[in-house]
């Protein structure tokens, strides 16, 4: 089997941030997949499942209700490694295009008070595993990264080409 593109990113060099993971085309329509990387792989502790689940409910609800972008949101959900989330949007976009949306979203999650949307047995398959306090903490830490991002927080690490050996250069 061929390696899928997301496995070609060197996760040992990946910082927290907002990255374009891939772009797929369905006819002439583009779907952009964003990697919302909240935890630095192999450096930070991964998110607890209660935080991931609470953030999934809060952020999916917030994004789909956003008056500017809500109609372009196709999917928001967690990564199995618990270091972040994927956001799929119907448009050809770059991280910088949606940065204000992501800032608003994580500010909302960090400050959220009240009942978590969709957190009842009728609405959710396992609503007892949600931790709002941990979710707010994780959202606040991520918000602090993206409020003033650097290039390393918006673009995947560049793969470096191997340098030619001195003996190769003479030939």
From TrEMBL:
<keyword id="KW-0479">Metal-binding</keyword>
<dbReference type="GO" id="GO:0005506">
    <property type="term" value="F:iron ion binding"/>
</dbReference>
<comment type="subunit">
    <text>Homodimer.</text>
</comment>
<dbReference type="Pfam" id="PF02664">
    <property type="entry name" value="LuxS"/>
</dbReference>
<comment type="similarity">
    <text>Belongs to the LuxS family.</text>
</comment>
<keyword id="KW-0673">Quorum sensing</keyword>
<dbReference type="InterPro" id="IPR003815">
    <property type="entry name" value="S-ribosylhomocysteinase"/>
</dbReference>
<keyword id="KW-0071">Autoinducer synthesis</keyword>
<dbReference type="InterPro" id="IPR011249">
    <property type="entry name" value="Metalloenz_LuxS/M16"/>
</dbReference>
<dbReference type="GO" id="GO:0009372">
    <property type="term" value="P:quorum sensing"/>
</dbReference>
<dbReference type="InterPro" id="IPR037005">
    <property type="entry name" value="LuxS_sf"/>
</dbReference>
<keyword id="KW-0456">Lyase</keyword>
<comment type="function">
    <text>Involved in the synthesis of autoinducer 2 (AI-2) which is secreted by bacteria and is used to communicate both the cell density and the metabolic potential of the environment. The regulation of gene expression in response to changes in cell density is called quorum sensing. Catalyzes the transformation of S-ribosylhomocysteine (RHC) to homocysteine (HC) and 4,5-dihydroxy-2,3-pentadione (DPD).</text>
</comment>
<keyword id="KW-0408">Iron</keyword>
<protein>
    <recommendedName>
        <fullName>S-ribosylhomocysteine lyase</fullName>
        <ecNumber>4.4.1.21</ecNumber>
    </recommendedName>
</protein>
<dbReference type="GO" id="GO:0043768">
    <property type="term" value="F:S-ribosylhomocysteine lyase activity"/>
</dbReference>
């Amino acid at each position: 089997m061929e390696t899928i593109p997301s496995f070609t990113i060197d996760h040992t060099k990946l910082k927290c941030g907002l990255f374009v993971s891939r772009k797929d085309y369905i006819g002439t329509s583009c779907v952009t997949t964003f990697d919302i990387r909240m935890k630095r792989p192999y450096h930070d502790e991964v998110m607890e499942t209660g935080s991931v689940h609470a953030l999934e409910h809060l952020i999916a609800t917030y994004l789909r209700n956003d008056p500017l972008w809500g109609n372009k949101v196709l999917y928001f959900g967690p990564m199995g490694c618990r270091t972040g989330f994927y956001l799929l949007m119907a448009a050809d976009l770059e991280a910088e295009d949606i940065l204000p949306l992501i800032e608003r979203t994580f500010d909302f999650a960090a400050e959220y008070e009240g009942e978590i949307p969709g957190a009842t047995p009728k609405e959710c398959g396992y609503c007892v595993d949600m931790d709002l306090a941990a979710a707010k903490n994780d959202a606040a830490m991520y918000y602090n990264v993206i409020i003033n991002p650097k290039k390393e927080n918006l673009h995947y690490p560049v793969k470096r080409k191997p340098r030619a050996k001195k003996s190769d250069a003479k030939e």
